[in-house]
């Protein structure tokens, strides 16, 4: 057969274009195909598996793929990391992975602060127990496993607070409105599109940032760290030139001498001050632990496809002279059924749940999880040097 005479890497490329069931059948056609399919360095299985995981329509062949020794074990790290909880817990036949491989799955799927649940358990036991917690929280309003929910607030003076509230009474939208009152911003209309931003989506949770966009009456109202957290300096959404450099060239905005570089007051901004942000590749690396969902695969860099909305309306914001003012709240929402839906649909449903949970009847309340310091450093490591003071609990940290 002419096909078998092709180079092995080309055969692997062709096999990778097949669906999973067809690939299984082709792998047993001849010894050469079997050799190519079982080679971990060629691994034609990854592409059909990733297509299934990205589409969230699981083929029957995926359920018992682990019984086939021809499939490299490494593929199961991707499956266990990205597949929906119910599939991993109740549908799939799990392979015999090493302890190091289960640890890899745990760190890729869950946030760093979630390691507190491991205790003395093995990595496999800890992973399955925690995944069951995630599934349980997605189908019920039970909060017995986490009575207190943590969240992080970035203050406009450069400090940050890690706060906690009773899980039964926790609603980020209500907490955010209280912060607006404390920051004397209650007179500003809470626009849904400007009220919260989707920062990054993981396998089981989405991390949201609540803030207020407005034209500040004073530079003291502006929160430079909020801008740095949502749109890291040097990263743009496939736009020509650097956003900060473009602002500098306009010679209409300035910045305050703070740990966050953010244009605020009318003055001349020397372009050389932005030279450190021209090459984000030196500073930023793709997030692996935890591993983002497909919509944010390149995070913190921009991911095309419409799921990464951090730079949405940025031109309008710049032209209108809007800035992030007051405190910025970071919260985490957990709802796998909504996470796999269209982004616009998610926004409508989560907005209804945040504003008036009782009206969103088929959505259980309390779909929130704790977001702690370790989680912030994991998804935004550049903030480690920017935040001037870390405060556990309320107050100024004096």
Automatic annotation (TrEMBL):
Pfam families: F-box-like. Gene3D superfamilies: 1.20.1280.50. SUPFAM superfamilies: F-box domain. Residues 1-48 form the F-box domain. It comes from the Eukaryota. This is F-box domain-containing protein. It comes from Psilocybe cubensis.
């Amino acid at each position: 057969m002419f096909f078998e005479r092709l180079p092995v890497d080309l055969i692997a490329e062709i096999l990778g274009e097949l669906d999973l069931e067809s690939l299984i059948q082709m792998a047993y056609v001849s010894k050469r195909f079997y050799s190519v399919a079982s080679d971990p360095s060629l691994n034609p299985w990854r592409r059909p598996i990733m297509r299934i995981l990205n589409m969230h329509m699981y083929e029957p062949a995926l359920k018992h793929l682990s019984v086939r020794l021809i499939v490299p074990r490494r593929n199961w790290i991707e499956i266990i990391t990205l597949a929906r909880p119910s599939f991993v817990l109740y549908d799939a036949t799990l392979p015999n992975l090493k302890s190091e491989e289960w640890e890899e799955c745990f760190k890729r799927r869950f946030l760093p602060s979630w390691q507190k649940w491991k205790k003395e358990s093995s990595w496999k036991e800890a992973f399955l127990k925690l995944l069951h917690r995630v599934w349980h929280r997605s189908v019920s309003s039970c909060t017995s496993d986490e009575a207190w929910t943590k969240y992080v607030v970035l203050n406009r003076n450069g400090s940050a607070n890690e706060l906690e509230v009773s899980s039964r009474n926790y609603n980020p939208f209500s907490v955010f409105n209280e912060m607006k009152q404390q920051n004397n911003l209650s007179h500003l209309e809470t626009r849904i599109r400007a009220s919260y931003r989707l920062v990054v989506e993981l396998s089981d949770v989405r991390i949201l940032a609540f803030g207020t966009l407005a034209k500040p009456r004073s530079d003291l109202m502006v929160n430079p760290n909020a801008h740095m957290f949502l749109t890291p300096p040097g990263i743009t959404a496939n736009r020509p030139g650097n956003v900060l450099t473009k602002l500098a060239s306009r010679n209409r905005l300035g910045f305050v001498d703070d740990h966050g570089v953010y244009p605020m007051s009318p003055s001349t901004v020397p372009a050389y001050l932005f030279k450190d942000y021209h090459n984000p590749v030196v500073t930023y690396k793709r997030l692996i632990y935890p591993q983002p969902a497909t919509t944010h695969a390149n995070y913190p860099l921009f991911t095309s496809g419409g799921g990464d909305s951090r730079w949405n309306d940025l031109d309008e914001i710049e032209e209108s002279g809007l800035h992030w003012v007051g405190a910025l709240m970071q919260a985490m929402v957990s709802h796998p059924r909504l996470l796999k839906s269209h982004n616009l649909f998610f926004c409508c449903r989560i907005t209804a749940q945040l504003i008036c949970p009782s009206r969103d009847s088929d959505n259980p309340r309390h779909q929130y999880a704790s977001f702690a310091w370790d989680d912030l450093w994991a998804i935004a490591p550049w903030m480690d040097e920017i935040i001037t003071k870390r405060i556990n609990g309320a107050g100024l940290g004096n």
